[in-house]
Write a structure and sequence with these properties.
single chain, alpha/beta, 7-stranded mixed sheet, 5 helices, 28% helix, 28% strand, elongated
Length: 165
């Protein structure tokens, strides 16, 4: 009936509407102990020297991945694995020197547990828009309406001052 996820920048089909809920910060995910975690300054060229887990083609995260290298004038990494499964991507990250552009919130617990690390995005604060996608003429049930109300209320809070638990 509705999707919660990254919103598309391009126009969606005429009978579909999108509603922004919040901005999701992005960072570079890597395993704790990865050689890049010991560096004080990491350049995009440094990132390109390692294998990457790439988001699927056509996704908003893929556009961010491609612009990371294009904006710096650096060729994209030669070694990549295209993966859309967070569970599979996590296994690649934990077992090798892979890097992945990721939602900072999605890796929060692995970072807190010391399994993964998060490097700041070289472009500064980079976010993607997360929201609702649904058909324009969709009529929600009372339970769905209540869920959407809660989602809208929670996402309107200023989470910058909170620890993402």
């Amino acid at each position: 009936d509705f999707l919660i996820g990254a919103l598309r920048d391009e126009a969606v089909a005429g009978d579909v509407k999108q509603e922004h809920l919040f901005y999701d910060p992005l960072s570079i995910a890597l395993r704790s102990g990865h050689p890049l975690t010991a560096r004080k300054r990491v350049r995009v060229a440094d990132l390109a020297a390692y294998p990457w887990i790439m988001p699927r083609s056509g996704s908003p995260l893929r556009a961010h991945f491609e612009s990371l290298f294009a904006a710096a004038g650096v060729p994209p990494p030669a070694q990549t694995v295209q993966c859309n499964s967070l569970i599979a991507a996590r296994a690649f990250l934990l077992e090798g020197d892979y890097l992945m552009l990721s939602s900072t919130h999605q890796i929060h617990y692995d970072v807190r547990a010391g399994l993964l690390a998060a490097l700041p995005h070289p472009g500064g604060v980079v976010t993607r828009s997360i929201g609702l996608t649904m058909r324009r003429n969709w009529q929600s049930t009372p339970a769905q309406s209540r869920l959407l109300d809660v989602l809208r209320e929670v996402s309107s809070r200023d989470w910058r001052s909170h620890d993402a638990r």
